[in-house]
Amino acid sequence: MSFQSFDDPAGGGDHAARLTALRAKMRDQHLAAFIVPRADAHQGEYVADADARLAWLTGFTGSAGFAIVTQDRAAVFIDGRYRVQVRAQIDLRHFTPVPWPETRPSEWLREVLPQGGRVGFDPWLHTRKEISTMEAALAEHSIALIAVETNPVDAVWPDRPAPPVGAARIHDEALAGESAAQKRSRLAAELKAAGQAAAFLSLPDSISWLLNIRGSDLPKNPVVQAFAVLSDNGDLSLFADPAKFDDSLRAHLGNQVSILPPESLSAALTDLEGPVRLDPGSAPEAAFRILEDAGTNVVPGPDPAVLPKARKNAAEMAGMRAAHHRDGLAMVRLLAWLDGQEPAALTEIDVVRHLEDLRREAGILDISFDTIMGAGPNGAIVHYRVTEATNRHLAEGDLLLIDSGGQYADGTTDITRTVALGQARADAIAPFTAVLRGMIALSRARFPKGVAGAHLDALARQFLWAEGMDFDHGTGHGVGAALCVHEGPVRISRVSDMALEAGMILSNEPGYYREGSFGIRIENLVAVTEAEAEPGRRMLGFETLTLCPIDRRLIDLHALSRDERDWIDNYHARVRDALLPDLQGAERDWLTAATAPLT
Amino acid sequence: MSFQSFDDPAGGGDHAARLTALRAKMRDQHLAAFIVPRADAHQGEYVADADARLAWLTGFTGSAGFAIVTQDRAAVFIDGRYRVQVRAQIDLRHFTPVPWPETRPSEWLREVLPQGGRVGFDPWLHTRKEISTMEAALAEHSIALIAVETNPVDAVWPDRPAPPVGAARIHDEALAGESAAQKRSRLAAELKAAGQAAAFLSLPDSISWLLNIRGSDLPKNPVVQAFAVLSDNGDLSLFADPAKFDDSLRAHLGNQVSILPPESLSAALTDLEGPVRLDPGSAPEAAFRILEDAGTNVVPGPDPAVLPKARKNAAEMAGMRAAHHRDGLAMVRLLAWLDGQEPAALTEIDVVRHLEDLRREAGILDISFDTIMGAGPNGAIVHYRVTEATNRHLAEGDLLLIDSGGQYADGTTDITRTVALGQARADAIAPFTAVLRGMIALSRARFPKGVAGAHLDALARQFLWAEGMDFDHGTGHGVGAALCVHEGPVRISRVSDMALEAGMILSNEPGYYREGSFGIRIENLVAVTEAEAEPGRRMLGFETLTLCPIDRRLIDLHALSRDERDWIDNYHARVRDALLPDLQGAERDWLTAATAPLT
Fold first, then answer.
1. Which residues of chain B are within 8 Å of residue A434 when distances are taken between CB atoms?
2. Which pLDDT score, from 0 to 100, does residue A472 have?
3. Helix ranges (DSSP H) in A139-284
4. How close B67 comes to chain A (CA, Å)?
5. For range A59-75, the mean pLDDT
6. What integer pLDDT is reported at residue B334 of this predicted model?
7. Which of B446, B452, B466 sits opposite A465 (nearest CB)?
8. Crossing angle of helices A562-579/A314-339, nearest 10°?
């Protein structure tokens, strides 16, 4: 079975009947409205089938959004990425798409419930920050936000799947670079120093990182779905289905870690001694309320694993480099193969399948996200995922945008290359070169400590901006080490003002999209490293991890500075030196040609 | 009399006796501590002699800082710029410098008053934001912040000067581009739309802008010190000494504006109907308390004049361009003259005086700040102001950093040029070129609407960063149109996240400072303009206002890209075309040579 499916994401089911059942249940619960988020209790990018409430109710399968249902309305709030998809997936006779964040849920509620009323929400599925924001916006209206005991969607979902019980596995200490016991005691010491008795963790990647374990509960993200309470003495209670852990796992976790059934979490929180740290940005509102109702001192603060996890150590960095070596070979093999094919004989799905096969040979455990393989105009759809319905034949002269990655035992990859199919189209050369120059400017950047992604974002966009062009997505996101391909807390984006630190790994992926014609994105992963500076200053820079040639057919040499040409030549030399020993025959020849100095 | 004085700023006076008198008064008022800020009630950069409480008490004359006095301690909090100056000015037997913001006043108070106590402050001299921040930091300690009725410093200051009564003048509507009545009704309509009955204004430049008046209460800033209440019908109460306004001024202000004595402000606020908008970042805490005590609905919000004032209209822009034309001529005459002198025959003060004379000929009403004229190592002192004591002879081979500006009737200027005295020193070429490239990158930047100074700052620093270098001041500040040379609300700085808008004028002034050797800064003023963009996008760019050559002796041509050389050549051609018709003889020859294309 392949990791990626090409089915149309629209699920079946009688959504009108489900809506009717939900409304009846809401009447029982005296709720004028109920909020159905896409999120689960762990606020991750992927949710288990048991948590796919939004899709079950509405048919909408996007990765972000929520519905608000009243007795006579059912609004599906979606952001700019999903304006088209939502209309194809929901039954417009029963559901109404609402643009978000342009329309805020509080505004919508005030309009729909002018007399006020009780608005229900499941406190496990929303963070404290979300609920506080909405409460503040509704403060002067007679609308009350009610945390329900029983989620009315679950109550009317007869064949709701069981939560996943994916087997957990040990993440080798050689890859982690630090034992789980050391991590626990390091974080526990921090809690103690802050005068906090415990911290509550709800992010599966934080918990998986902390315990040096990986899981199989969800596709693409190798995490164990769990909650945890870390005490200031290093003891940890792990709330997760015990069936996920075999004897070797239990031995690995050791006797400072207790595995407890998820059903016992509420009682355990009630009994907890404070002060307890919870992250308002990720912990469920329910956890805050249980502690507050028990009179426990709650300290809002960041999940203690988030920053340590983001700062990769030498072993994690070595694993990431090794994974990128194998992943680069798979990509080079794909691009070499592609150049030998007749474009018209291939579809997007054919290329996705071939890439997945090559990555399987390279040892992936999973792909790190569904491959975006956009030929011609499909490349201009930023979050395009090919389905049987949209599958397009490649064509001579088109651009092909390939954004993909793998989950390896030792690392996570995410790479985008945009290649010309045959002769490059003339109108793509200037924007490709502007995107490339931005990617190079960020790659070469050196900057003082304290600088955040918000301050570097313009470096990657400046050459596009100079031509009146831009792109409407972030320039870079954090990446986990054999963890989630989208990892907090820092990004390269105008909204990310947390300082970058040595060891953080980010994507560097400017792009350009011309609707109806082509899409361009060039993406390498980069690691933040210490850099040389004048006495009295401390500077950081980037090391590029990704190893794969950039299509020279699309580069306007005359637009490049000497430094930019040198960067490309040096990068290509590095790619060649790293990968050539592992290639033979035509692949070897292809790489040699693809990485020759620019002339 | 010259606008700039070269006296040592350390004022005389028996500071120990003043401290003793203050402490006695504090005992009468049952205050364990009292805070003496540098600010006056208008939070401006300059304070009148009557408001120079910090200097009177401590001897410290810097433009930022504050003292906290207890019965046995007297701490003077100063930022990084004033670490050296403060030690030269205060009597270290009685006063202790405290580094700020490294040590926060709340921390210091908690340490010095472990048992708690009453800490007094004058609510007219602190903003609501300042007081709220300090109150939050002291919340869990038994320290109470007490707003005093009588400032104990004023009570023990027998010969305290009277407040200034500088004559106001009319700012011509032809220069303002909009009548004062139109401005008042435009802002009043905004208040009405927001459901606010009035706004309280305390910033002299906001009030001067709104009423199309200028003043002479303070040096360098041509504002009228006043408070104002703007009603939602456009009526305005102006609280300022009536002696500042002659009959022509009164006729200009018209019968919708009432001039009231400052003493009547408190009573007028008490009688005000709400809701009233006040700016927590600039309005005095006292104004908030008076309104709140009267039960009036207070709405925190920005001073309604700040953004309209920052967005210069066509007439203001024309005035700024005209002022920069005259100011450019003065600068060119200075630089031409300087190149004809024997450096060793001149001191820094000689050059300051000659520049001021040239600007007087160009028609200034004042300088816009004390000229920074730093020769050799003095150039590396970022906020250097030459005094008789520090005055240095120029020397062949030194760099001379000249940061200066003028207040003209039609505009405000601020320009920095760094020039080589004779042959340029070799070690200055690379940093000068890196600074210049950053200045050019920002000048040439095009960027989408929504981008803020925080996002552009790196463009000006990138070439320095690439060499491990940086500078420790902002890249740019807002500039008023015939108003304050430092004007809010936007800056080019990592901390400025408010979007730039067309019409805003900012400085563009990267630098580099090598302690003990030289300082480099190159500064032009730039105006934000609309720029071309692809369909569906809206972009902005910059127009450079400053007209003065950049010293070609300090430029490493080989480090410049084609675009950068073109920028310099085009800029120099523009300067030459603009100024050459107004020059004769040697000055004409000098400008022709200084603006010739780079080769």
1. none
2. 93
3. 152-155, 173-176, 180-193, 204-211, 247-253, 265-271
4. 29
5. 96
6. 98
7. B446
8. 90
**Chain A interface, best mutation among B455, B457, B463, B528, by max A CB count within 10 A:** B455
pLDDT above 70: percentage of residues in chain A? 99
pTM greater than the 0.90 cutoff: yes
Q: What is the pLDDT of residue B191?
A: 98
- Tell me which residues of chain B have a C-beta less than 8 Å from any C-beta of chain A: 441, 444-448, 450-452, 454-459, 461-462, 465-470, 494, 497, 531-534, 537, 539, 561
Radius of gyration of chain A (CA): 25
Per-residue pLDDT reduced to its tens digit, A471-509: 999 999 999 999 999 999 999 999 999 999 999 999 999
Cα atoms found within 13 Å of the Cα of residue B509, Cβ hemisphere only: 28
**Phi, psi torsion values for B328, nearest 5 degrees:** -65, -40
Count, in order, helices (H) and strands (E) of chain A.
19, 27
CA distances to A46, A109, A283, A494 from A490, rounded to whole Å, are 20, 33, 18, 11
- Residue B450: list chain A partners with CB under 8 A: 494
Structure-token pair, residue A428 = 């793509």
Is A534's CB within 8 Å of B494's CB? no
Given A455, A457, A533, which is nearest B494 (Cβ)? Answer: A455
Measure B109 CA to nearest chain A CA, in Å: 22
Strand order in the sheet with B487-492: B446-448, B539-544, B524-531, B505-508, B476-478, B487-492
φ and ψ at A438, to 5 degrees? -65, -40
Contacts of A446 in chain B (CB under 8 A): 465-466, 468
Backbone φ and ψ for B145, nearest 5 degrees, come out as -85, 120
Q: Are strands A399-404 and A298-300 parallel, antiparallel or unpaired?
A: unpaired
Q: Which of B470, B537, B540 to probe the A interface (max A CBs under 10 A)?
A: B470
The mean-pLDDT minimum among A32-36, A82-86, A302-306, A500-504 falls in: A82-86
Cβ distance A447 to B456 less than 8 Å, yes or no, reads no
State the average pLDDT over residues A48-62: 96
pLDDT at A80: 84
Say if the Cβ atoms of A446 and B457 lie within 8 Å. no
For chain A, domains (ranges, CATH) are: 15-155 (3.40.350.10), 169-309 (3.40.350.10), 311-589 (3.90.230.10)
Both tokens of A407, joined, read: 């989950």
- Average pLDDT rounded to a whole number, residues A543-565: 97
| Pairwise CB contact (< 8 Å): B448 & A470 | yes
pLDDT for A315: 98
**pLDDT given at position B253:** 98
**pLDDT(A10) > 80:** no
Residue A232 confidence (pLDDT): 98
| Residues near A581 by beta carbon (within 8 Å), at least 6 away in sequence | none
Per-residue confidence (pLDDT) for residue A250, from 0 to 100: 98
Q: Helix A585-594 vs helix A562-579: angle between axes, to the nearest 10 degrees? A: 160
CA distances from B469 to A519, B283, B519 (A): 37, 39, 13
Closest Cα of chain B to A277: distance in Å?
Answer: 19
- Nearest-Å Rg of the Cα atoms of chain B is 25
Residues of chain B with pLDDT under 50: none
Structural tokens at position B563: 């675009």
Contact by Cβ (8 Å): B48, B65: no
Can you tell me the mean pLDDT for A237-251?
98
| Cα distance between residue B435 and residue B450, in whole Å | 26
Using CB atoms, pick whichever of A444, A450, A469 lies closest to residue B534. A469
A448 → closest Cβ in B445, B465, B532: B465
Q: Which of A448, A457, A470 sits opposite B455 (nearest CB)?
A: A457
Q: Could you tell me the two tokens for A520? A: 């361009």
